[in-house]
Amino acid sequence: MWFKKKQQKIESYEAPIVFPAGNLSLDKHSRTWQFIEKHLKEELQKAREENDSHNKDLQQTAALRGKIRFIKELLDLPNAKDKPEKKAGTTEYDY
Fold first, then answer.
1. Which range of residues forms the domain containing residue 50?
2. Are 93 and 16 in contact (CB under 8 A)?
3. Residue 54 forms part of a structural domain
4. What pTM did the predictor assign?
5. Distance, CA of 32 to chain centre
């Protein structure tokens, strides 16, 4: 039965987006980016609607939230700095 299942700890992992050396530029006015942005926004809406349905377990919900976060990061690429700054004493990057 579902209520006898043992809860599992879910560990998160954040993989930083690593930019190639040199200047990074993404033309947010290009037709290519407009196509990608439109597709990502559609996927984000679908993922949000799926996340709002209440028939997901903890792991499915966590996976959907990760997908939503990743899509948001992709949508924010035109605003990213050229090179991420590594936070002192950690493996995290400051974008």
1. 27-80
2. yes
3. yes
4. 0.60
5. 20
Q: Which long-range contacts (CB under 8 A, 24 or more apart) does 26-30 make?
A: 26/77, 26/78, 26/80, 27/78, 28/78
Computed over its alpha carbons, how large is the radius of gyration of the chain? 17
The answer on pLDDT for 68 being more than 70 is yes
Residue 46 lies in a domain: yes
Band of pLDDT at residue 3, cut at 50, 70 and 90: low
Is 45 domain-assigned? yes
DSSP H helix total and E strand total for the chain: 2, 2
Amino acid at 81: K
Structure tokens at 56: 């997901």
Q: Report the domain count for the chain.
A: 1
Cα separation of 69 and 67, whole Å?
5
**pLDDT tens sequence across 7-62:** 666 666 565 555 554 556 778 889 999 999 999 999 999 999 998 887 888 898 89
The answer to the question of residue 64 being in a domain is yes
